[in-house]
Fold each of these.
Amino acid sequence: MDEAPATIEPALQDHCCAAAGPTAGTSPAPALRAERTALIGRAFRLEYATLGWMAIEATVAIVAGLRARSVALGAFGIDSVIEIASALVLIWRLNVELRRGEAFGEQAERLAGRLAGGLLFALAASVVIMAAFRLAARAGASFSWPGLAVTLAAMPVMYLLARRKIAVADALGSRAMRADAMESITCFYLSLVVVIGLAVQAVTGAWWVDAATSLGVVWFLVREGREAWTGTCCC
């Protein structure tokens, strides 16, 4: 796969909603269609890789979260399930374009963007509800070694997936794939939040750390969900 931007954040700001198009010296239309088909093939591989990793991540995080009564780990597991749904939406959208052409792909793009935005809103709401419940009950969480292991492993995996998804999304001009990349970035940040929360909890034993740290990515989820839903770019 082609090399993507060096960091996540600059990639979020560059070419937010740029659609792939001809430039000076490009080949005729058949070559451009072949190039776009190759990009779609890259997108498929990224989404299948996402499905495989997320199946592992969701299983470990949800089981560990239930055993430790951890809101942050539970939110992390739910995020993984939502990423699976988002990847399936993207695979459907890409299949539509391959079977019926780019015009039909653009129609599927709008629906896929709405679905991806709705999934991000759902994750934000679930995090807030679970955190509020735990804070109201003054209920802490137990330390979880499996939870720590899966969140540590998730950070480099999500970082690499997000970089490559952003590069392909910009080349295709796909808001839906960008929203899917945002969910990968959210998973990266959420895993970082969970790791920090687990570390602070292990050192201090404070009961509220788990619920409080789980709220750290809600603003990001809402912002990206709104942009995916409305089709506006983040430039």
Amino acid sequence: MTSTPREAEARIGPIGALLCRLAFLAICLPGPVLFAVAVTLDPLRSPADFWGLLAGGVLVTIVGVGFGVFGLRLVTRSRRDALRLSAAGVAATAEILAAANHLGGEDPGLELHLRISGPGFATFEADTIRADDPALVPGALLAAVVDPVDRLFSIS
């Protein structure tokens, strides 16, 4: 059984990965700090201060840890994809079958429908979004790298 093709996450270098991990760790810290201040505040000013700091600490911990874990998983997945493609990836060719405007998000671009072929795996079709470029027209060929086992791919 073959898996569904998946485009590799954008490559993050080692320094970028370290900085991202530190930033996501920093996102996780304010909640526990507020919680610790609520518990160890001496002398307590009022019950409202205590409960406010406690509730704020719990809420910020839940939200911060959620965002932090999401970010850490994203960085880890990017690094894992890059390592997998560098170790087991084979050179391939991606032919643009169709190009359409993509208006999602703040960066409009082109949604490309590709046919990816190369040695060691069956030809498959996949979609990707790229920045607007006049060279990205149907029939154009792009360089690609594919992991034949699970059809993980990256377009150059």
